Every structure is written in C-alpha cells, then in structure tokens.
Please model this.
Amino acid sequence: MQLLKVLALILEYPTEELQASKDALVAAVLEDGRLPLQRKEQLLRGIDMLCSQDLLDLQENYVGTFDKGRATSLLLFEHVHGESRDRGQAMVDLMEQYRSNGLEIDAKELPDYLPLFLEYLSTRPWDEIRSWLEDIHHILGLLGERLYQRDSLYHVVMDSLLELSGRKTDRQELAQIVATEERDDTPEALDKVWEEEMVKFVDDQGSSCSTGSVVGQRRRELEQTQTIHLSDQLMTDATPRPAGRA
Model:
C-alpha cells in the first residue's frame, strides 16, 4: 500500500531527499482510494510544509518533537510496556512476524519503530493492515492528540492512520487526557530521566538494554546507522525486503 510508505517517510528524520520527493509523495496520496478527501487535503498540506520549509528548522523541530521525552516516542511498545521485560518479548515476537513474512531488519534497528512498522505493513494485504492498525489505534490516538496540542504538523500522519484503522476515537476525551498530562520534554523532566537512566545503568553494571526515546531514536545518527530509504521505492510495487538490509 503506497500510502503507508508515504506516511512512513514523512515520519522519518527530514532530509533533502524527502523534500525532493514531493511530487511522488503528492501523487501517491492523490492516487490512494481509501482516505477520504478531507484527510487527503490535510495530509497534502503537511507534505507541502515539510517540503517547502527550511530543512535545518525542520530537523530541529523533529528532534524537539520526537527525541525529547517519551510521550511522543515513535517506538510503539514504549507506550505499552515502558522499559519492562514485557517490551523485550513483544519486540522478539514482532521481529519473528517480520521474518516470517520475508522482512529482515538490521540488528541495531528496533522493530517497534513506527516508520519501520509502516514499511512492513505496506507489503501486507489490506485486511491484515487494517487489523494491525486497529490493534494500535489507542496509541495512534494519544500520539495524534499530543502532537496536535503541541502544534506539530506530524499529527496529520496519526489522523490518517486512525482513519485507515476504521476505529473512531473520542477526541474530546483524548484532549482532556492529554491536557492533564505533565510534559516530559522540559529541561527539568529530561534531567530527571537522565539521572534515573544513569542510576539504572550503574545498578545493572552495564547489563541494561535500555532503549529510551532519547537514546533509541537518535541511535541512527550517533552510530551512523543507515535509515530506511523509501523514496527510491515509493512509486514501485510493494515487495518484501530481501534478507540483509542494504
């Protein structure tokens, strides 16, 4: 499903390649037969903003949105399991799901990273896509509302995914929940998280496998891990990725 590739690409760290692929992104949205017109127009406005604004500003905004605090983390299981042991097993199970359907990912990549998850779904039948999105609709709803209340253009992606899931959400209820949440992306909140992670690291004597939002999602920059390159495949038929990511 080409639209899922578009949504995955939008959620990646902004690049010149993303901005250069505007025409392909727009064409894929216009050709989609499942999103209603209102959602398409909303998504197209978001694409226009991403492809027309200053790249450095977009990159700074991206880091501030997704890499500070966990409330807007793009790691799905972080919203369900936090740092508990259950999250590790959930990621193993999801990795097996990928592998059984022909998708092999790099060992440094986390299987619950939303853009990667959407890339995988883009290769699956519609009934399976709908079922997966329905399963995570509560996460998408909260993410979308948090992004909306932070005036982030990325909320349009969550809105589109919710539309595809077929599940209705009570926006008023979500707004009330998010409005009462304590922000976790302030300097004070980030300092507290850093201190807690350091204590955990020392207590575990280096054995901790913490994959917090700040560390996990910026890993691709710090370790020069290759990102998911979807733009070259955007207008091609979706096929499972061969073993060993290039």
Notes: The chain has one domain: 2-233. Residues 67 and 214 are 5 Å apart (CA to CA).
